[in-house]
Structure formats: C-alpha cells, structure tokens
C-alpha cells in the first residue's frame, strides 16, 4: 500500500519523528537519564545550564532579630551544541509519494535503532569525563559488591542524592554481581518504573543497570542525573524525500537530522571506575 497522506505534510513528519525517537529510546538506558534543565537564550540560541555553588542554607529563626539574609550564586554553564547527525536511507525504485508503508516502517525502525545507539555511545563518552576512581584493584566475586558500595558512599559524602543516582555496570561486572546474594535479593523489591528503565537491582539503595556498550576499559560508572545534561532538537524532521541528484532515477530516501549536545556539569557528580586489568 502506498503512503496515502503524502510526504510533505508537517503532521506526517511529526509522526515519523515520534516513531524514530520511540524506537531509539529502547537503546538508550544511559542517554535517557541525562537531564534537560536548561534555559535557551532566544537571541543567540545559546543553551545555558543553571548551576548552584551550594544548597540553600537553613538557620534558626530569632523572633527578636529575625534571620540573616543568605546568598548563594547561581551560575550558568553554556552547553556546547557540538553533536550533528542524521539519516539518509535510500528507498530505491519509488518516488516519495509512492513508497509503500511497509518500506517506510522498515526505514523508520532502522533509523530509530541506529540513532539510539549513536546517542547511547555519546552519553557513555560524556560520562567518562567525570571523576576517575583511584581504586585500581581487580574486581572479583568476593569484592565487587563492597567496591561499588564504597564508591557510592563517596558520592553520598559529596552530597549526591540517592534518588537521582544510578550505577551502570559492564557485562563483566554484571557476571560477578549476579553471584552476590545481597545484590540478587534486591531485584524482588524493584518497582515497575525501575524495571522499565533497565534496572536489575540496587546497591546501597542506588538503582543499578547494565550497559554492554561501555567497552572493556570501564568497570562501572556512578552518576547523579542532576549533573548530566543534554539538549536535542530536530534540525530536519524525518521525511521521505525524492532524490534529485542526477544519478538516482525514480528513487527517494528517508532523511532526518538532529543536533544537540551533552555535558557533565559537575565532575564530582560522576564517578568512573576504570578497568585497569582489561589488557591482562
């Protein structure tokens, strides 16, 4: 069946964009944790992330003298928009207004999957810019749980919130942890929301998930979502467009382009545990 609505309508582009992002989310259990607490300068287009140097102070109130006025600075960090990526997938033999729905669906599915992997890898590389743990001890089934607990404890001492923290572990660390009874026992207490996020258990109260894209150089990363920021926007919403390059005849392509950026706004909010034994 050919696409009856035509390919140039904004409604259809919005539909394609929503479908692509929905498919992409299935591949992004770290990228989705990045927050979007930004302000956009409408004049320059600059994306600014507000940051505070400290929390609001609480003091005892004196009925006679009142309470001293406290100040704490709110600074703004510019979030660099340095990610630019897109899809341009050929649909041979069909002009845009004649592409069967099943071919469009295939291209959307593929585009969503590929964009999801792209975003997830970007998020992982961004997290790696955080604080690197000084602990280089080889992880074993006997010490892995205690090692992660110790790193979580350090994060708590930095005033990171358990409710907004996540632990993401490599496939090798997952294998070690699944033999730990304390970790295994936490899986039964997870709510539906955490399960949908890919959480497989908790360590020191912090939801823990596995990611198989981190590579052999990282054992685990602990991050506070408040200090991991992202921005994304469609530069060109996905649409099936005719190809008029003088080379392809009666062909079209699913084309779309996104731009954005990611940053860690406080390196103390991300703890990276390197795998120093990966080359052994």
Describe the structure.
A six-stranded mixed β-sheet has the order 5-12-9-6-8-7. The chain folds into two domains: 141 residues; 103 residues, hypothetical protein PF0899 fold, CATH 3.30.2320.10. α1 packs across α2. The chain has 280 residues and is of the alpha+beta class. β7 and β8 form a beta hairpin.
Contiguous low-pLDDT stretches (5 residues minimum) are none
Q: What is the H/E string?
A: HEEEEHEHEHHHEEEEEE
Strand content: 25-35%
Q: How many runs of DSSP E, i.e. beta strands?
A: 12
Query: From the helix content, strand content and strand pairing, which structural class follows?
Result: alpha+beta
User: How many separate domains make up the residues?
Assistant: 2
Descriptive key words:
280 residues, alpha+beta, hypothetical protein PF0899 fold, 2 domains, six-stranded mixed sheet, three-stranded antiparallel sheet, 6 helices
Short description, anyone?
This protein is an alpha+beta fold.
How are the secondary structure elements laid out?
Elements: H1 10-25, E1 39-40, E2 47-52, E3 74-79, E4 83-91, H2 101-127, E5 131-132, H3 144-157, E6 165-169, H4 171-177, H5 181-184, H6 192-196, E7 199-203, E8 206-210, E9 218-224, E10 228-242, E11 252-264, E12 270-274
Parallel strand pairs: 5-12, 6-8
Antiparallel strand pairs: 1-2, 2-3, 4-11, 6-9, 7-8, 9-12, 10-11
Helix pairs in contact: 1-2
